[in-house]
Design goal:
- Belongs to the Ap4A hydrolase family.
- This is bis(5'-nucleosyl)-tetraphosphatase (symmetrical).
- GO terms for molecular function: bis(5'-nucleosyl)-tetraphosphatase (symmetrical) activity.
- The chain is α/β, with parallel strands linked by helices and 278 residues long.
- 30% of the residues lie in helices and 12% in strands.
- The protein has eight helices and eleven strands.
- Strands 3-2-1-10-11 form a five-stranded mixed sheet. A three-stranded parallel sheet has the order 4-8-9, with no helix packed on it.
């Protein structure tokens, strides 16, 4: 199907009012246009429930698609009792809603990696330098299969997706350790070494001092067949635009704005509304 316009939108974080305002700015028409979301649909914004409902409805119409972010995975984990609801995440209304199970069953079946067009690839946090895009797609499918499996297998997976320390990637990595490492690359990564070693404590902007030997994952120059579109790193304010990578988290929930990147010409449009402070 051909579309009038396709837009890739950074982390919504439940900023429902800003999201609706952005759709007006885009003159979005679900009959002609398509939205792609970079994950983290929910969490710190004022209305995660209606944000999730709206995105789900558009996806089911074929007018939108999303990848999963770390906050989305956490929402699924809380739903299944594998994690506790954090006070700073304003998602309690989702678990109190009559359609909670329907929403979360839909959410867990969304991809980790997607191809918005022939020139781009969409993930939440990024793709590490030691993976090609094709290799990354294969690992994404492995994690997706686990997330979309029966509830017994899902409940075995979810408690094993979380660790304060990053796992080293190696040729023999397997089992839940492998699934956790894959999830960390796709949904938590900011800094890494060239071999893919991760560092979780840094979330500031690029002008801040970084741990020795670590760089933003996109600064390791490796050949890419597609431009990587990503969110997750709010401190970048969507200002990174390289030949091989484009940041899209404008940090709306932190007092900035939502960003929409128009495929085809690369034009970036922003919401004029901000999210109430978290």
């Amino acid at each position: 199907m051909s579309f009038r316009h396709q837009y890739v939108i950074g982390d919504l974080q439940g900023c429902y009012a800003a999201y609706l305002q952005l759709l007006k700015t885009l003159d979005f028409d679900p009959a002609q246009d398509k939205l792609w979301f970079a994950g983290d649909l929910v969490a710190r914004g004022e209305d995660s429930l209606n944000t999730l409902r709206h995105v789900k409805a558009l996806c089911e119409q074929g007018a939108a698609a999303t990848v999963l972010g770390n906050h989305d995975l956490n929402l699924i984990a809380v739903w299944r009792g594998a994690a506790k609801l954090k006070n700073k995440d304003k998602t309690a209304s989702i678990f109190a809603a009559d359609d909670c199970d329907e929403l979360l069953e839909w959410l867990r079946r969304q991809p980790i990696l997607a191809y918005p067009d022939e020139h781009t690839v969409l993930v939440h946090a990024g793709i590490p330098p030691h993976w090609s895009i094709e290799t990354a797609a294969g690992y994404a499918q492995q994690l997706e299969a686990q997330l979309q499996s029966n509830l017994v297998q899902l409940d075995q997976l979810l408690p094993n997706l979380y660790s304060k320390e990053a796992d080293d990637w190696h040729a023999g990595i397997e089992g839940f350790t492998k699934m956790r490492a894959i999830a960390n690359y796709f949904t938590r990564m900011r800094l890494c070494k060239q071999d893919g070693s991760l560092e979780f404590s840094f979330s500031a902007g690029l002008d801040e001092a970084m741990p020795t030997d670590f760089l933003p994952w996109f600064e390791w120059q490796v050949p890419r067949t597609r431009k990587i579109l990503f969110g997750h790193w709010a401190a970048l304010k969507g200002e990174i635009d390289l030949l091989h990578a484009r940041a899209l988290d404008g940090g709306c929930v932190w007092g900035n704005y939502l960003l929409a990147y128009r495929l085809g010409d690369g034009k970036v449009m922003t919401s004029s509304a901000q999210c109430p402070s978290p």
